[in-house]
Specification:
mainly alpha, Structural Genomics Hypothetical 15.5 Kd Protein In mrcA-pckA Intergenic Region, Chain A, 8 helices, 5% strand, globular
Amino acid sequence: MKRKHKTYSRPKRPFDKARIDEEAKIKEEFGLKNKREIWKADAKIKLIREKAKKLISASEDEKNAFFERLKKIGLNVNTIGDVLSLDKKDYLRRRLQTVLVQKGMATTQKSARQLITHKKVLISGNSINAPSFIVPVELENKISIKANKIKTKKSKIESEGAEE
């Protein structure tokens, strides 16, 4: 089994007041568990930017293939400049937790996170339990919430009335 490496790096200056305040706002806005999730998003964006820099001198076909891959996950990019201007907030907006709130299936970020971790959210029939799941554009309309299997008092009365 291959050894799993960290998917993020910690900040170089651990006690930078401006960075700490900014991360606290982002953590609150997106309902994140800890700042490590912000650092992971930052690392992903950094990786995407590095790939874009290598593609500057590449052919148009390679660039277009790269842009299509980014468009599939929901990042709106058409040029290398667009890719280089991406921010960690753009990436965090594509998380399942955030998409649930945007679609109105959950009222708050915290409730969306709870629904996901309790396996109440289905994407095209498959249960997803990772709030950090990046939702591709094609699956965005296939998100649903499991129906309650427990009958409520009202539905019991209605089903008894239908039997008679």
